[in-house]
Amino acid sequence: MSTHRIALIASARYPIREPFPGGLEAHTWQLASRLRERGHEVTVFGGAGSDPALDVREMAPLPPLSAHARSDVSMPAEWFLAEHHAYLSLMLELAAPDAPYDVVHNNSLHYLPVAMGPALARPVLTTLHTPPTPWLESAIRLPRTVATPRFAAVSRTTAEQWRGLVPDVRVVRNGVDTAAWTPGPGGGTPVWSGRIVPEKGPVESIRAARAAGTGLRLAGPRPDRDWYDAEVAPLLGDGIEWVGHLDHTALARLVGSASVAVVAPCWDEPYGLVVAEALACGTPIAGFARGALPELLDDTCGVLAAPGDVDGLAVAIRSAARLDRAAVRRRAEGFCSVRAMVSGYEDLYDELAA
């Protein structure tokens, strides 16, 4: 294995620090930290307020706009314009002939690193963290007159969704630190964790837990408070509670204490880092068979219901609680460790730098 100078492009909008806003920020923190441990020189480009230990280079903020620009009828949302300016400035910086990197790894969801990547003198790797989106599809379809971009996908499911546009995509599954996410005693109230948003299925999970008579503890950020207050808050009580937005240490204790982790995506979840975290804690999964969940789980570590089937999910919660927690932990060690993830990216860096 060679060591490399890596420019790692992260989210410009959200800080990379605990408690993490979402799985993408947690993944970026883990990847950058482990690559440095293995001798690589990693420069992370990300949002303001990130973990000081990660030494993030903050992307350029949006400069003040004139009154004429702000009054223009085409003025987009300010967060959108700020992201556009941040990534545009960064890609122009990375396009300099003397940019001190061997590889640029785009770990963001933004279209500009994909669209402008071929203009760089260094090879660019983009990790596909989502199903196809209009912005990314548009960027990928641009004519290529120079270097062909390279892509990785976080699951076989995601790779297949992109196969029509990106036939040569390497699967590098997300991983978790199995030394930090350690087996817990289990037996406690089932847990749901993640961003509390409609597509993650917290409402369906609550209804299933009520039908199963088990209760449910929810942990995670509430990015849309209006939706949370209208749809989730009224369902709390009688054994259903939100316990806050926890850092990884507290969350690992919570997940390890639970009898079951409920994962009920209402969209085609590309991976589901919460699945890997629960498996590492020895906590079996009850979930919907949607997105990458059928790929990540087998009958030793999870029970799946048909997508959207709340009654079936209630049955899955009761059934999953009977699975062997040692077998669940073994699945994490063999299938979704951070060591395997980092090795997969190192292989790609070696190929690109060569």
From TrEMBL:
Domain Glycosyl transferase family: 193-324
Domain of life, per lineage: Bacteria
GO molecular function, one term: glycosyltransferase activity
InterPro entries: Glyco_trans_1, Glyco_trans_4-like_N, Glycosyltransferase_grp1
Keywords attached to this entry: Glycosyltransferase, Transferase
Domain Glycosyltransferase subfamily 4-like N-terminal: 21-179
Entry's Gene Ontology BP terms: carbohydrate derivative biosynthetic process
Protein name: Glycosyltransferase
Protein species of origin: Pseudonocardia petroleophila
Taxonomic lineage of the native organism: Bacteria, Bacillati, Actinomycetota, Actinomycetes, Pseudonocardiales
